[in-house]
Each structure stands twice: as structure tokens, then as C-alpha cells.
Amino acid sequence: MFSQDSLSYDPLPLPDRAAYTDAQMQEKATEFLAHMQRRHTVRDFTDQPVPRQVIEDCIRAAGTAPSGANHQPWFFAAVSNPELKARIRAEAEEEERKFYAGGAGDEWIKALEPIGTNEDKPHLTIAPWLIVVFAQRWGEFADGTRYKNYYVPESVNIATGVLLTALHTAGLVSLTHTPNPMKFLNGALGRPASEKPTMIIAVGHPAEDAMVPSVAKFKKPLEEICQVFE
Q1: What is the pTM of this model?
Q2: Per residue in 95-104, pLDDT tens?
Q3: Structural domains in the chain, sorted by start
């Protein structure tokens, strides 16, 4: 991405800008809100293939996200190989069985009841793609010297949000899955110790009989998530 001998400020004229009227801005904001209100977390997938190019373009979009010092401390492992998906599912379900057997605690399990989840994760093998998100805790120059990454969780979270939006915009559905712990993903995918897996995103098309929990349709109203100071 960069080298030790090119760490200087080199400004460029802003290459892209939007010049919308207030009315055009409102129209676009309203359209985007309606678009995102149609995004749903789905647990019931078909095995209908999704072209690799679509997945790669969505990951490219995620890569445009802002990051601390522009270090872009993320890595996305896109998996369609059936044997590898089966391995990920088996190891994830092993952790999930511990979670639901008491590792999570009663309060957490109670909170998950309206969502209807359990230790069985068939989406990990049925969905045509799994995208595993890794946070890079440090980077390395070409000579192996380490450099620190900054605001890593914040940067990776922003990029993941862009990825989920891109997948939805492409007409796909997704499910974020966070087995705990997730260190097994480093071994399964050959990722270095500098990277911490943050989630598995199952991606594909919804099954014909796909269901979503009714509670998922409840979103906090604006006054509960925003205060405007004018």
C-alpha cells in the first residue's frame, strides 16, 4: 500500500464532487432511506450461485471506506469452496454449542430468543459465499518491519457497513455471524497472527420460504437515535 520512503503529504484537487440542489439532496436521501429499509438479515438461503465478480466489486466498494491514517486495516476472505465452507461450519458450530450450552450466560441467551437462533448454522454451507472479515492489528513494510494501524475496530466496522450496503444494492441478502472465539478462522483461511477475525458474512439469494423474525422489523424511531443541535 505504501513504503517507508514515501510517507509525505502530496495533496490532489478533489477528484469528485456532487453539486445537488437542496431538493435533489432530499430526494436522494429519501430514496436511499427507502432502499435501506428493504435490507433484511436473512438466515434462509438458496444455493443459487452468485458470480465472483459481483462479490469482488462489493468488496472493492468496502475498500473505499475511510480508515485511520488511511492504513485500510482490513482483509476480506471470500469463500465459495464447498469443502472449506463445510470446515468453517463445523468449527463454528462447535463454538456455538459451547455458547448455547451456557458459555453466553442466561441474559444473552434470553435476549436472542426473539431472533430464533441456535447452534445449528446451515447457512454456512448453503449460502454460495462466505465473506470472512479480518481486522489487521498491525501491518508490515516490504522489509518485514512492523507499523502500527490506528482506529482499527472503527475502520473495519465502517468498511463492513459499506460491504453490507453494497451486497444489498446488488440484490443479495446477507447474515452476519460472529461465533466466539473465532481464531479457528485464521487457521482455516491461512491468515497471519496480525489479523483478528471479526465476523463471517453469509451471502446469497433468499430461499423461497425465507422468514425473518418479526422483532427485526422494529427499528428505533429517529428521536431515540438522534438529537439535533441547531
Answers
A1: 0.93
A2: 888 888 877 7
A3: 41-225 (3.40.109.10)
